[in-house]
Write a structure and sequence with these properties.
With about 220 residues, the protein is an alpha/beta fold. The chain has helices spanning about 10-15, 15-30, 30-40, 60-65, 80-90, 90-95, 130-140, 175-185; strands spanning about 50-55, 70-75, 100-105, 115-120, 140-150, 190-195, 205-210. It has eight helices and seven strands. It binds S-adenosylmethionine.
Length: about 220
Protein backbone atom coordinates (compact mmCIF):
# COMPACT_ATOMS: atom_id res chain seq x y z
CA UNK A 1 0.00 0.00 0.00
CA UNK A 2 2.70 2.45 1.13
CA UNK A 3 4.71 1.40 -1.94
CA UNK A 4 2.10 3.04 -4.18
CA UNK A 5 3.01 6.48 -2.80
CA UNK A 6 6.73 6.30 -2.06
CA UNK A 7 9.76 4.59 -3.60
CA UNK A 8 10.33 1.86 -1.01
CA UNK A 9 13.41 0.45 -2.79
CA UNK A 10 15.09 3.84 -2.38
CA UNK A 11 14.32 3.65 1.35
CA UNK A 12 15.63 0.07 1.71
CA UNK A 13 18.73 1.22 -0.19
CA UNK A 14 19.37 4.21 2.07
CA UNK A 15 16.80 4.67 4.82
CA UNK A 16 16.23 8.33 5.66
CA UNK A 17 13.93 10.52 7.76
CA UNK A 18 10.80 9.27 9.55
CA UNK A 19 10.06 6.68 6.87
CA UNK A 20 13.63 5.39 7.11
CA UNK A 21 13.27 5.01 10.88
CA UNK A 22 10.00 3.12 10.35
CA UNK A 23 11.60 0.85 7.74
CA UNK A 24 14.57 0.30 10.05
CA UNK A 25 12.18 -0.99 12.74
CA UNK A 26 10.58 -3.30 10.15
CA UNK A 27 13.98 -4.65 9.12
CA UNK A 28 14.97 -5.20 12.76
CA UNK A 29 11.93 -7.46 13.14
CA UNK A 30 11.69 -9.10 9.70
CA UNK A 31 15.38 -9.92 9.17
CA UNK A 32 15.85 -11.82 12.46
CA UNK A 33 16.05 -15.29 10.80
CA UNK A 34 18.77 -14.28 8.31
CA UNK A 35 20.64 -12.35 11.02
CA UNK A 36 20.71 -15.54 13.14
CA UNK A 37 21.63 -17.70 10.13
CA UNK A 38 24.54 -15.40 9.26
CA UNK A 39 25.83 -15.38 12.83
CA UNK A 40 25.74 -19.19 12.82
CA UNK A 41 27.72 -19.26 9.57
CA UNK A 42 30.27 -16.77 10.95
CA UNK A 43 31.07 -18.97 13.99
CA UNK A 44 32.78 -15.92 15.52
CA UNK A 45 35.45 -16.33 18.19
CA UNK A 46 35.59 -13.97 21.18
CA UNK A 47 38.84 -12.42 19.90
CA UNK A 48 37.69 -11.87 16.28
CA UNK A 49 37.92 -8.55 14.46
CA UNK A 50 34.71 -8.41 12.41
CA UNK A 51 33.36 -5.93 9.83
CA UNK A 52 29.70 -5.53 8.82
CA UNK A 53 28.78 -3.43 5.80
CA UNK A 54 25.22 -2.08 5.56
CA UNK A 55 24.26 -2.84 9.17
CA UNK A 56 20.90 -0.97 9.00
CA UNK A 57 19.34 -0.97 12.49
CA UNK A 58 22.37 -2.84 13.90
CA UNK A 59 20.62 -5.99 15.10
CA UNK A 60 23.25 -8.47 13.88
CA UNK A 61 26.00 -6.40 15.51
CA UNK A 62 24.09 -6.37 18.78
CA UNK A 63 23.84 -10.19 18.77
CA UNK A 64 27.49 -10.65 17.72
CA UNK A 65 28.73 -8.30 20.42
CA UNK A 66 27.62 -10.83 23.05
CA UNK A 67 30.11 -13.31 21.50
CA UNK A 68 33.00 -10.99 20.57
CA UNK A 69 34.26 -10.08 24.03
CA UNK A 70 37.95 -9.29 23.49
CA UNK A 71 37.90 -8.50 19.74
CA UNK A 72 35.95 -5.73 18.03
CA UNK A 73 33.08 -5.36 15.57
CA UNK A 74 33.21 -2.41 13.18
CA UNK A 75 30.16 -1.46 11.12
CA UNK A 76 30.04 0.77 8.02
CA UNK A 77 26.77 2.12 6.58
CA UNK A 78 26.12 5.18 4.42
CA UNK A 79 22.72 6.07 5.93
CA UNK A 80 22.93 8.69 8.72
CA UNK A 81 19.44 7.57 9.86
CA UNK A 82 20.61 3.95 10.30
CA UNK A 83 23.87 5.09 11.90
CA UNK A 84 21.86 6.88 14.62
CA UNK A 85 19.47 3.93 15.13
CA UNK A 86 22.29 1.37 15.31
CA UNK A 87 24.35 3.56 17.66
CA UNK A 88 21.37 3.76 20.01
CA UNK A 89 20.80 -0.02 19.86
CA UNK A 90 24.52 -0.76 20.50
CA UNK A 91 25.25 2.09 22.94
CA UNK A 92 26.55 -0.14 25.75
CA UNK A 93 28.91 -2.15 23.50
CA UNK A 94 30.15 1.10 21.87
CA UNK A 95 30.93 2.55 25.30
CA UNK A 96 32.77 -0.67 26.20
CA UNK A 97 34.85 -0.40 22.99
CA UNK A 98 33.59 -3.72 21.55
CA UNK A 99 31.67 -1.99 18.72
CA UNK A 100 32.47 0.98 16.49
CA UNK A 101 29.97 2.26 13.91
CA UNK A 102 31.12 4.46 11.02
CA UNK A 103 29.47 6.31 8.16
CA UNK A 104 30.95 5.24 4.82
CA UNK A 105 30.50 3.62 1.42
CA UNK A 106 31.04 -0.04 0.65
CA UNK A 107 33.32 0.77 -2.28
CA UNK A 108 35.53 3.16 -0.29
CA UNK A 109 35.88 1.75 3.22
CA UNK A 110 37.38 4.19 5.76
CA UNK A 111 39.60 1.40 7.12
CA UNK A 112 43.20 0.20 7.05
CA UNK A 113 44.09 -2.94 5.09
CA UNK A 114 44.43 -6.50 6.43
CA UNK A 115 42.57 -5.68 9.65
CA UNK A 116 39.65 -8.15 9.85
CA UNK A 117 39.29 -11.88 10.48
CA UNK A 118 35.78 -11.86 9.01
CA UNK A 119 33.46 -9.52 7.13
CA UNK A 120 29.77 -9.88 6.40
CA UNK A 121 26.83 -8.10 4.88
CA UNK A 122 23.10 -8.89 4.98
CA UNK A 123 20.64 -7.74 2.28
CA UNK A 124 22.86 -4.85 1.25
CA UNK A 125 24.91 -5.79 -1.84
CA UNK A 126 21.85 -5.40 -4.14
CA UNK A 127 22.10 -1.65 -3.52
CA UNK A 128 25.84 -1.16 -4.11
CA UNK A 129 26.27 0.66 -7.45
CA UNK A 130 29.84 -0.61 -7.80
CA UNK A 131 29.54 -4.03 -6.20
CA UNK A 132 32.70 -5.43 -7.83
CA UNK A 133 34.79 -2.51 -6.52
CA UNK A 134 33.24 -2.99 -3.07
CA UNK A 135 34.18 -6.71 -3.03
CA UNK A 136 37.77 -5.74 -3.88
CA UNK A 137 37.65 -3.23 -0.97
CA UNK A 138 36.47 -5.96 1.41
CA UNK A 139 39.26 -8.24 0.15
CA UNK A 140 41.72 -5.39 0.92
CA UNK A 141 40.63 -5.01 4.54
CA UNK A 142 40.54 -8.76 5.32
CA UNK A 143 43.58 -10.47 6.77
CA UNK A 144 45.08 -13.32 4.74
CA UNK A 145 42.96 -16.34 5.72
CA UNK A 146 39.97 -14.04 6.45
CA UNK A 147 36.41 -14.82 5.36
CA UNK A 148 33.54 -12.88 3.82
CA UNK A 149 29.90 -13.93 4.30
CA UNK A 150 27.32 -12.30 2.01
CA UNK A 151 23.72 -13.01 2.96
CA UNK A 152 21.21 -12.48 0.18
CA UNK A 153 17.83 -13.41 -1.17
CA UNK A 154 19.17 -15.02 -4.35
CA UNK A 155 17.80 -13.66 -7.63
CA UNK A 156 16.14 -16.95 -8.62
CA UNK A 157 14.06 -16.87 -5.40
CA UNK A 158 13.21 -13.15 -5.58
CA UNK A 159 9.64 -13.35 -6.96
CA UNK A 160 8.71 -17.01 -6.48
CA UNK A 161 5.20 -16.07 -5.38
CA UNK A 162 4.71 -13.65 -8.32
CA UNK A 163 6.96 -14.94 -11.12
CA UNK A 164 5.52 -12.42 -13.63
CA UNK A 165 6.86 -9.43 -11.71
CA UNK A 166 10.16 -7.94 -12.91
CA UNK A 167 13.20 -8.74 -10.75
CA UNK A 168 15.10 -5.71 -9.49
CA UNK A 169 14.79 -1.97 -10.07
CA UNK A 170 17.26 0.80 -10.94
CA UNK A 171 18.11 1.01 -7.20
CA UNK A 172 18.21 -2.71 -6.49
CA UNK A 173 20.17 -5.40 -8.37
CA UNK A 174 19.58 -8.96 -7.08
CA UNK A 175 22.30 -11.57 -7.80
CA UNK A 176 22.34 -15.32 -8.09
CA UNK A 177 24.77 -17.12 -5.80
CA UNK A 178 26.79 -18.21 -8.85
CA UNK A 179 27.07 -14.60 -10.11
CA UNK A 180 28.44 -13.51 -6.74
CA UNK A 181 30.89 -16.43 -6.67
CA UNK A 182 32.29 -15.30 -10.05
CA UNK A 183 32.53 -11.67 -8.85
CA UNK A 184 34.29 -12.79 -5.66
CA UNK A 185 36.91 -14.75 -7.59
CA UNK A 186 37.53 -11.71 -9.82
CA UNK A 187 37.92 -9.54 -6.69
CA UNK A 188 40.71 -11.84 -5.49
CA UNK A 189 38.96 -14.33 -3.20
CA UNK A 190 39.94 -17.99 -3.46
CA UNK A 191 37.50 -20.70 -2.31
CA UNK A 192 33.80 -19.81 -2.37
CA UNK A 193 30.79 -21.82 -1.25
CA UNK A 194 27.07 -21.44 -0.61
CA UNK A 195 25.45 -22.23 2.73
CA UNK A 196 21.66 -22.28 2.31
CA UNK A 197 18.81 -23.31 4.57
CA UNK A 198 16.79 -26.13 2.94
CA UNK A 199 13.63 -24.79 4.64
CA UNK A 200 11.70 -22.96 1.86
CA UNK A 201 10.12 -20.68 4.48
CA UNK A 202 13.56 -19.11 5.01
CA UNK A 203 14.67 -18.22 1.50
CA UNK A 204 17.01 -15.47 2.72
CA UNK A 205 18.96 -17.87 4.93
CA UNK A 206 21.40 -18.01 2.04
CA UNK A 207 25.08 -17.11 2.41
CA UNK A 208 27.79 -16.88 -0.19
CA UNK A 209 31.04 -17.50 1.70
CA UNK A 210 34.46 -16.57 0.34
CA UNK A 211 37.96 -16.75 1.75
CA UNK A 212 41.06 -14.72 1.20
CA UNK A 213 44.00 -17.01 0.61
CA UNK A 214 46.54 -17.22 3.46
CA UNK A 215 49.32 -16.80 0.93
CA UNK A 216 47.84 -13.59 -0.49
CA UNK A 217 48.78 -10.13 0.70
CA UNK A 218 47.85 -6.57 -0.30
CA UNK A 219 51.45 -5.44 -0.36
C1 LIG B 1 17.97 -3.36 3.25
S1 LIG B 1 19.03 -2.61 4.42
C2 LIG B 1 19.64 -4.05 5.33
C3 LIG B 1 20.01 -3.71 6.73
C4 LIG B 1 20.44 -4.89 7.61
N1 LIG B 1 21.66 -5.49 7.13
C5 LIG B 1 19.34 -5.90 7.71
O1 LIG B 1 19.43 -6.97 7.06
O2 LIG B 1 18.37 -5.64 8.41
C6 LIG B 1 20.45 -2.12 3.48
C7 LIG B 1 21.46 -1.34 4.29
O3 LIG B 1 22.66 -1.19 3.51
C8 LIG B 1 23.07 0.16 3.53
N2 LIG B 1 23.77 0.44 2.27
C9 LIG B 1 23.25 0.33 1.02
N3 LIG B 1 24.17 0.65 0.09
C10 LIG B 1 25.31 0.96 0.76
C11 LIG B 1 26.61 1.36 0.35
N4 LIG B 1 26.93 1.52 -0.95
N5 LIG B 1 27.55 1.58 1.30
C12 LIG B 1 27.23 1.44 2.63
N6 LIG B 1 26.01 1.07 3.07
C13 LIG B 1 25.06 0.82 2.16
C14 LIG B 1 21.79 0.97 3.71
O4 LIG B 1 22.01 2.25 4.25
C15 LIG B 1 20.97 0.07 4.62
O5 LIG B 1 21.21 0.34 5.98
Amino acid sequence: MLGRFVNLDAQYRRPSGWLGRYIGRDMARDHQPENRWTIDVLQARPSDQILEIGFGPGVAIQALSTIVSTGQIIGVDFSPTMLRAARRRNAAAIRAGRVQLLGGEANNLPLAGERFDQAFSIHSIYFWPEASAALAEIWRVLRPGGRLVLTILPRELWNVDNPDLPVGTPECRPYTGAELQTMLHIAGFSATSIVADPNPAHRSNYCVVASKDVATSNS
